[in-house]
Backbone:
């Protein structure tokens, strides 16, 4: 079984590109199903504001990378050669190492942030429930979660995190100095936006308004955050009231464009307004930065600022990277071992059957034996079987991660007549 990752992230593509490939949560199984149709035997898809990644397993007879690239290009309505400028691919050990790094937040915009693990779990569970994953990916993801926990407990990587939200608070203070007199508006119910709103509340903003397409959702979130619910239809008026606006919706186009903002600016007498646009695709037209006293920061902008604590995180990240690489090698050896395990099991089963039959025949010939004598004969038979099988077993285990493993398995099964035993195993 071969493992494969295709994706684009904040490291290879700016948000202007990533937003075209963003996949809504409800569409993840549909995309994973398209990957199966393109040649993968197992698949799941992750889509966050920082990355879109396809994880796949295939049987090795036909590499589906090209077909999967074409499929991802269709997701973003782009030509494959355009996507390839931003696309990365990893296979086998590199694919497992990448999955482990993502889960452990070593590949995140802000190294050590905890949100990605929850996003990965949710995306995987959505596709697993839809029946799109299988033994290889299930094992890989299960191990990724364990590795992420090990990284957080055995390194200090989480102690030096500068989050996107904390950067946003610092920027807000630079613009408004004292947040006690400011009104903040959260538009949408995305996790990152909700986290930023919580931080703003803790920083002391005078009032927090929560707007959502579903008023019930706005009411629930407002209660949790100590704010007031609003309907999304009130957005033009909210732009007049607000000093700080956090956008985190799944809308495919700009919720706040230049025309809407120019009208709001006149009504607010050109008081400064600060947008924290954490959505991908973006909710706020970046051209608003050209308007007087309008400040728009998207996830890429905030990340560039977040690296102020990079040195401390880098030291811990180096320890975590070594841990992840070691765990990836271990996992690949285990996964390869699973391929030869049925043959080893059937070989041992056949040998044990032959041994037992010959023991029973020998005991009948030898007549009455004492328990001690009988035990000695059994130990002798076990010793002969184990010594005869040892070199074959070791050879199979060594061949597990070789490219010609299928040929080795076919040869052993043919020489030892293991067809029936292999089916039982």
Residues:
């Amino acid at each position: 079984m071969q493992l494969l990752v295709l994706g684009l992230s904040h490291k290879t593509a700016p948000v202007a590109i990533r937003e075209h490939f963003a996949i809504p949560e409800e569409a993840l199984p549909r995309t994973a199903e398209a990957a199966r149709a393109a040649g993968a035997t197992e698949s799941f898809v992750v889509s966050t504001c920082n990355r879109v990644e396809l994880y796949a397993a295939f049987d090795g007879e036909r590499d589906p990378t090209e077909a999967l690239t074409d499929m991802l290009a269709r997701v973003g309505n782009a030509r494959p050669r355009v996507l390839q400028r931003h696309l990365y691919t990893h296979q086998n050990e590199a694919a497992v190492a990448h999955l482990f790094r993502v889960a452990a937040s070593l590949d995140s915009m802000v190294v050590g942030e905890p949100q990605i693990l929850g996003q990965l779990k949710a995306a995987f569970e959505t596709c697993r429930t839809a029946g799109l994953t299988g033994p290889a990916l299930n094992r890989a993801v299960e191990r990724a979660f364990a590795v992420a926990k090990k990284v957080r407990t055995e390194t200090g990587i989480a102690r030096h995190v500068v989050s996107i939200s904390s950067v946003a608070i610092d920027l807000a203070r630079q613009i408004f100095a004292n947040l006690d007199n400011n009104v903040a508006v959260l538009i949408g119910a995305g996790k990152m936006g909700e986290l930023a709103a919580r931080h703003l509340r803790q920083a002391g903003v005078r009032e927090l308004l929560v707007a959502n397409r579903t008023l019930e959702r706005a009411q629930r979130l407002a209660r949790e955050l100590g704010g007031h619910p609003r309907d999304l239809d009130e957005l033009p008026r909210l732009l007049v009231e607000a000093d700080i606006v956090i956008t985190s919706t799944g809308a495919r186009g700009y919720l706040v464009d230049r025309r809407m903002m120019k009208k709001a600016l006149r009504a607010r007498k050109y008081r400064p307004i600060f947008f924290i646009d954490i959505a991908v695709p973006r909710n706020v037209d970046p051209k608003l930065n050209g308007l007087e006293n309008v400040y728009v920061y998207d996830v890429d902008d905030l990340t560039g600022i977040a690296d102020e604590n990079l040195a401390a995180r880098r030291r811990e990240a180096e320890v975590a990277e070594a841990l992840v690489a070691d765990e990836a090698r271990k996992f690949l050896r285990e996964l390869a071992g699973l391929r030869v395990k049925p043959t080893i099991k059937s070989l041992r089963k056949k040998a044990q059957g032959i041994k037992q039959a010959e023991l029973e025949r020998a005991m009948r010939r030898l007549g009455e034996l004492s328990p001690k004598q009988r035990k000695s004969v059994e130990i002798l038979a076990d010793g002969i079987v184990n010594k005869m099988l040892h070199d074959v077993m070791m050879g199979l285990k060594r061949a597990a991660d070789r490219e010609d493993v299928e040929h080795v398995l076919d040869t052993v099964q043919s020489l030892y007549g293991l067809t029936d035993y292999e089916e039982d195993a």
Notes: The chain has three domains: 2-154, 164-292, 332-424. Residues 164-292 form a domain with the Rossmann fold fold (CATH 3.40.50.720). The radius of gyration is 29 Å.
